[in-house]
Amino acid sequence: MFVKIQAKWDSFTRFGPDRFGMEYVAVVEQYAMNLIQPTPEQQVHIRKTFNEDVNTRDRDLEAIKEWLRKEPHLPDTWDDCRIMTFLRGCNFSLEKTKRKLDMYFTMRAAIPEFFADRDITRPELQEILKLMRTVVMPGVTADGKRVTVAGATASDFETPDIANFMKIVLMIGDFRLKAEQVGVAGDIYVLDASVALLKHFLKVSPTIVKKFFVCIQEAYPVKVKEVHVINATPFVDFIIKWVSPFLKEKIRKRIHVHPDLDSLFKVVPKDMVPEEFGGTAGKVQGYMDMWIQALKDETAWFKEQESVKADESRRPGKPTSHEELFGLDGSFKQLTID
Questions:
Q1: By its UniProt entry, which SMART domains does this protein fall under (predicted)?
Q2: How far apart are CA 276 and CA 135, in angstroms?
Q3: 244-263 residue pLDDT tens
């Protein structure tokens, strides 16, 4: 199915509107959304997972919108579909949704290196796009989960600023807040560790890594169900130990390092994974092109959202400090590299 999607996209983008006219526009709009929604049968299962009641969810949505209007330090309004995604990610607990939304807008103010200058055509982001093979695949598994693959086009390259890679990942995350129209049962990640070289690791700041994982775990309505690592070396074991203090225990327990691809495809559908990762879902670049186009199309929204963030000067009580969010810089456990 995904190979057909990519082939059709390739045809339309190769020849453009001159050949296909308005049909080109319709197809670009359809595939730029990138994410195939779960079937009605899968949605029933997913709603049970979320504790979602179709009879009361609009009431819950209105309750969150009213809460936003009353919080002086938060935006007065935000679009309904993204708020609904937060409700689903918090199993329709109003209190959890409020905490996560508060943290989301707080992070947008606290980490400008992730949330400012989010124009995918900027040279520093284009540099990352030339190296990365990171895409959210369009379909869902039989039980309603979404698969994301992450790797690089090569391993031996000049190490770029990892904050820009993280920025792109969060841009995709913000896109998904709207594009996941009915929600998914969780996320599966397939990580190609062949890029994990010592030369890159030595240029990575633990501070930026901690900010990224705090942001992902505390500010986004993500349900990480499985993390699969392929092409691992003994050095990858060290990296996992190094990053583990930044991860919640339940996520640490969901990391699986595979000795080979046969092991991976016992638990992840092969037709949900691109060829470069050993699967049968076609070339990864086709999916990359769709995502890049989608992020380009949202350039105005990303610019507009730079001002949609928490204002700590108006927060009731004491403003949230950097130390409260991320701890003290330099307070990281040191590990010895053999």
A1: SEC14
A2: 12
A3: 999 999 999 999 999 999 99
